[in-house]
Give the backbone structure.
Amino acid sequence: MSSVTLKNVCKKYDSKVVIDNIDLEIKDKEFIVLVGASGCGKSTILRMIAGLEEISGGDIYIGDKKVNDIPPKDRDIAFVFQSYALYPHMTVRENIAFGLKMRKIDKATIEKKVQEAAEILDLTEYLDRKPKQLSGGQRQRVALGRAIVRNPKVFLMDEPLSNLDAKLRVQMRSEIKKLHEKLQTTFIYVTHDQTEALTMGDRIVVLDKGKIQQVAPPEEIYNNPSNTFVAGFVGSPQMNFINADIVEGFAEFECHRVKINGLPASGKVILAIRPEKMVCGGDVKFSAKVDMYELLGSEKIVYFNIGNSKCSAKLPPDYEIKEEIELSIKEEDIYLFDFESGTRIY
């Protein structure tokens, strides 16, 4: 069993709480992605699982074994860093084999494991090269190879693609997913890139200020965000948020009234709409003055204001942009959030 369980885990630096009593259960063979803005605590969680960071409270289990006091080398995990952390004076073969040599594994076994890893990662022809002779993607594959040969229970990856260019990131995303399918072990992957999270994870853990905001498969995170933070963090451009007053069962904003099931009796709410849902032919029609627009080949992103709210819409590339555009919203595409707490109103 290579499941990972965090029970009421917290981390403090002096009086500052970095991880705030989180509970998380990662299943055996699952590919789970921790995502959030810089400083949300995702890398700290990874380092606590690895044993590189002491926990301030709670328990961490790998399988059925509590690992709070077990040193990193005995936790049977492999850590892939953002910076590759390769030895520049060693060849690819020597870099991949290094951890096995430190464990005093016999030479024949080491060579067999290195060859197997090289074949999986398409590195066979580069085994005698030094890291400086490799591209960024090849170096990252060497770092993965060094992890694979150890046959760990859990792979931990801390933003492994952030140093690569955009095209190579797309390629490596696919390669890491294929690697997970081949190895059939547990992957815990940290990123600040929502595209990586949505395309790679079986489930996504969205973090903010050391707290878990939502844990769910990618489709649910995108289509059913639990609060305004998740809704605003996932999606590009981000979700449109519009403040509205509740009057006689209607949500009112900028001279528009929308009848929505589930509205509270009175007060304020936040209406939220994805940019791609700002279309023609919806129930709630309105006009908006265009701030600016971007042509992205297959679509135009148009930016405008609704009252004090900055909004955007994804429109067809041939849509004619004038000083003022006519848009509309379908009622079923509107999300409702509590004005004070930001939690979803279903």
The chain has a mean pLDDT of 90. Residues 166-183 form the longest helix (18 residues).
